[in-house]
């Protein structure tokens, strides 16, 4: 999974595979598990022990009945991402854990921005920036306006940064990312099918 032509920061260019493996970048880890109340704290403990900070976390039911999906982002080396997934898979309730780079995923985030209405009315540039970035106003009152934006992480942050530079943002919140893999193979389905086949052959 190492890519020496990484276009994220350019620091990996012309480096050996060993040097690239020690370069930190953003990884997305997807964890599939049974829905148990203590698992979240156990997953968090894996990151804490390795002193890796969780950047974003999203938990939801998956398309497989009874299975929940954790989508976690963190900045670390690929070696560390591999170690984290192995540690999580040792948990009894974890069915599968896999790490990905951004180029292997379709990614979306959602964000809400509260904009000062007086500033919005005084500066037409704010509405222009919102339109260019695909944002939509979902509420406007005399005090504030609420702007919604859905898109890739960098698009969401670009909108926030531009509006914040104009002093228009009163509040800002964004979800953790949601994502699906670009490949046609569903690793969890393959794993469950293999486990069921092994169970029947016993």
Provide a brief overview of the structure.
The longest helix is centred in the last third of the chain and has 15 residues, at about 185-200. The protein has 7 helices and 9 strands.
* Residue windows where pLDDT falls under 50 for at least 5 positions: 1-13
State the CATH architecture of the largest domain.
2-Layer Sandwich
Order of helices and strands: HEHEEHEEHHEEHEEH
CATH topology of the largest domain: Alpha-Beta Plaits
User: DSSP helix count?
Assistant: 7
Return the domain count.
2
Tell me the helix content. 25-40%
How many strands, what sense, and barrel or not for the largest sheet?
5 strands, antiparallel
What does this 3D model show about the protein?
The chain is an alpha+beta fold and 202 residues long. The protein has two domains: 17-100, Alpha-Beta Plaits; 106-178, ACT-like. Chain A, domain 2 (Alpha-Beta Plaits, 2-Layer Sandwich). Helices cover 35% and strands 35% of the residues. It is built from seven helices and nine strands. The chain has helices at residues 17-20, 39-49, 78-89, 117-122, 124-132, 153-165, 187-201; strands spanning 25-34, 54-61, 67-76, 94-100, 105-116, 136-140, 144-151, 169-174, 178-181. Residues 1-13 have low confidence and may be disordered.
Write the layout of secondary structure elements.
Layout: H1 17-20, E1 25-34, H2 39-49, E2 54-61, E3 67-76, H3 78-89, E4 94-100, E5 105-116, H4 117-122, H5 124-132, E6 136-140, E7 144-151, H6 153-165, E8 169-174, E9 178-181, H7 187-201
Antiparallel strand pairs: 1-3, 1-4, 2-3, 5-7, 5-8, 5-9, 6-7
